[in-house]
C-alpha cells in the first residue's frame, strides 16, 4: 500500500511539474544546447543518439505519468457526476456508474436519451418548453 501512495504522490508532482512553462523552457534549452553542440561533434551518430535516447526515455516515462493522471482525473469526475445524479431529485440512479457497463448497455441508454432529446426539440419547435422531466 505504501508503494501505491508513493507512486500516486510522485505521479501528481511530476505531472504538475511537467506541465509548467519553466519545464517547457528547460526542454527548449536542452534542445538548443544539443543543436549548438552539433558542429562540435561533427553531427556524429553519437551526437544524434544522445538526443534520440534522451527523448525516448522521457517520452516512455511520461506516458505512464500522463495515463495515471488521466485515470485519476476521470475517476474523480465520474464520482462527482455520480454524486450529482444521486443528489438530484427525479434523476435516474440507474445512470450511476455507467462507465462500468458494456457497450451494448451504453448504446441502449444513449438511444433512450437521443429519443428524449428529439422529443424535447419537437416540443420546443411547437412552442412548448423543454425544462421539465419528460417522463410521465
Provide a count of the helices.
Answer: 4
Specify the overall morphology. elongated
The level of helicity is over 70%
The termini sit apart by 49 Å
- Mean model confidence by pLDDT: 89
Beta-strand share of residues = under 5%
* CA radius of gyration: 25 Å
Low-confidence stretches: none
**How would you spell out the order of helices and strands?**
HHHH
Number of strands: 0
Coarse structural class? mainly alpha
Query: How many structurally independent domains?
Result: 2
The main β sheet shows up as:
none
Structure description:
There is one protein chain. The chain is mainly alpha-helical and 136 residues long. It folds into two domains: 2-95; 101-136. The protein is 74% helix and 0% strand. The protein contains four helices and no strands. The chain has helices spanning 2-18, 21-37, 45-87, 103-125. α1 (2-18) packs across α3 (45-87). The longest helix has 43 residues, at 45-87. The chain is elongated and about 75 Å long. The mean pLDDT is 89.
What are the SSEs and their pairings?
Blueprint: H1 2-18, H2 21-37, H3 45-87, H4 103-125
Amino acid at each position: 500500500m505504501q508503494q501505491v501512495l508513493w507512486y500516486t504522490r510522485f505521479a501528481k508532482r511530476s505531472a504538475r511539474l511537467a506541465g509548467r512553462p519553466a519545464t517547457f523552457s528547460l526542454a527548449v534549452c536542452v534542445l538548443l544546447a544539443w543543436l549548438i553542440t552539433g558542429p562540435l561533434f561533427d553531427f556524429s551518430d553519437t551526437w544524434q543518439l544522445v538526443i534520440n535516447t534522451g527523448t525516448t526515455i522521457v517520452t516512455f516515462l511520461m506516458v505512464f505519468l500522463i495515463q495515471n493522471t488521466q485515470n485519476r482525473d476521470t475517476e474523480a469526475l465520474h464520482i462527482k457526476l455520480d454524486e450529482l445524479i444521486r443528489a438530484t431529485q427525479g434523476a435516474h440512479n440507474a445512470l450511476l456508474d455507467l462507465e462500468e457497463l458494456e457497450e451494448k448497455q451504453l448504446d441502449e441508454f444513449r438511444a433512450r436519451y437521443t429519443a428524449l432529446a428529439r422529443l424535447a426539440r419537437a416540443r420546443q419547435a411547437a412552442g412548448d418548453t423543454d425544462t421539465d422531466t419528460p417522463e410521465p
